[in-house]
């Protein structure tokens, strides 16, 4: 088992990562002070079917727990499910000592974290991530839900008590979810670690290479990069924005597709390619990345999406300022920066990007 200590200004907590580290859950629960009156496990139906029993067996009789299982899919990170979880928590008389357990990928982590961050003005929660992508989402304390007007528009910063990342849970991920999560690993490498990027490019030739020790090593490196950034800028006043590399367009693509038919990371991968195309210095890197992503089976740009509706969504991005869309670009590998664009100029660039993509 590996332990990474996350040190944000508001809270320090461990990430336990390794095969079968789910057994750490009891240790974490027993060390909580005050001891929780009861627990609320929030999961989705896929993860629930696969791992709920394992988690319940680990808890055993040590604590009483309630479970709420919601449908899977990013469109479930909704007001309706937020309300359902709050009503359920109230009906089961959770109090301020109670603890929410987020068992699932980033969708569940964000939703359950937001439920915990706002129930009775905030109760504790534990992240049990079950996707590769969640090496990113489970760390750093951003929680929230989607609004029809935009992704992750409603939320709070709320750090977990611990992250228990049992990598044996990752073996059941379908191929598109492996790709989705790996896109965020690539993002971490691109914005912060040239060596990591180069070694991943050299070693990951197909998504079947993403397993076992090499996967775990990449996840640990990704978590360390995220930790370094959130330690310096927990509430995204500055450099944390770099973690949004690829996300301004990626979120718009997800929104236009109504969070269906493309995974989060696949959309982010397209957003990263667009961001790299915006600067002459990174065009070659972008071409190389495109070839690599293609070999790994990432989808190409959905050709029916229009630049103007995507840019309309990008204007609502949380980083947008005074009518300018802030894009995270790379000056070079590992060196991100923020660049403002008018919507008109971004739309022109996106139109040509989509046109190029549709020729392929
Ligand atoms: N809070 C943050 O800092 C942050 C960072 C990045 C992404 N996110 C959010 O994370 C979400 C995406 O997370 P995700 O990609 O984990 O999606 P997800 O939670 O929707 O999971 C993807 C799919 O995989 C299934 N699944 C999960 N674990 C599984 C397992 N072990 N075996 C088989 N199937 C499994 C789920 O049921 C779902 O169908 C987005 O909502 C995104 O906005 C948040």
From TrEMBL:
It is an enzyme of class 4 (lyase). Its main location: cytoplasm. GO terms for biological process: amino acid biosynthetic process; aromatic amino acid family biosynthetic process; chorismate biosynthetic process. InterPro entries: Dehydroquinate_synthase (IPR050071), DHQ_synth_AroB (IPR016037), DHQ_synth_fam (IPR030963), DHQS/DOIS_N (IPR030960), DHQS_C (IPR056179). Residues 181-320 form the 3-dehydroquinate synthase C-terminal domain. SUPFAM superfamilies: Dehydroquinate synthase-like. Its cofactor is Co(2+); Zn(2+); NAD(+). It catalyses: 7-phospho-2-dehydro-3-deoxy-D-arabino-heptonate = 3-dehydroquinate + phosphate. Pathway: Metabolic intermediate biosynthesis; chorismate biosynthesis; chorismate from D-erythrose 4-phosphate and phosphoenolpyruvate: step 2/7. Residues 68-179 form the 3-dehydroquinate synthase N-terminal domain. Pfam families: DHQ_synthase, DHQS_C. NAD(+) binds at residues 130-131, 142, 151, 169-172. Catalyzes the conversion of 3-deoxy-D-arabino-heptulosonate 7-phosphate (DAHP) to dehydroquinate (DHQ). HAMAP family: DHQ_synthase. This is 3-dehydroquinate synthase. It comes from Fictibacillus phosphorivorans. The gene is aroB.
